[in-house]
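job 3f2a | input accepted
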Amino acid sequence: MKKTDEILSIVKRGVVDIVTEEELIKKIKKGKPLNIKLGIDPTAPDIHLGHTVTLNKLKQFQELGHNAILIFGDFTAMIGDPSGRMSERPQLSREDIMENVKFYKKQAFKILKKENLKIVFNGEWFSQLDFSSIIKLLSKFTIAQMFEHEYFDLRFKKGYPIGLHELIYPIMQGYDSIMVKADIELGGTDQKFNVIIGRFLQREFGHEPQVGLFTPI
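job 3f2a | predicted structure (217 res):
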């Protein structure tokens, strides 16, 4: 087993922000395999260059003996991540999304090892939620919280439309973290708000909050 300082040196390589480093150290010091989450929405047939950065970071955790969890967002892709967007993303059909998944899997395995890797689709749990469960989930948040998202706030101030379905995207991503019991979530710096929403939800459900590791865009 590598020492904590050595592990930190590896996992912090290429990382520009951590929420929080103190919590990351505590998790590493437990000396047991952690659940490392990376979510990708199959919104196009090809994984883009930004994805390869986080996929390589996920591979590093695999090599350190941790549990890599790759989530294909077959339900979140129907909304599309509003981060970094001044307009609503075009809505995709589930058929188009599942066709894209075929290519994503092949491309992801060019980087990731099949050992200690779990691939899941968030439709596994979102398709099972009834409307009363969705209301209960949404009731944990306020509009003010959602407008802490830089682009929601900016679009509102500029008078650009914001769809109600876009507001629930960060909540869905956060709920993914509960379902896979994420200890660490990987993402670009544009994912910080979504990851923090996941931390909030995990606390609400009585779970230990995940740590966010963010790579540059």
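job 3f2a | Strands lie at 17-19, 35-40, 67-72, 117-121, 184-188, 211-215.
job 3f2a | closed
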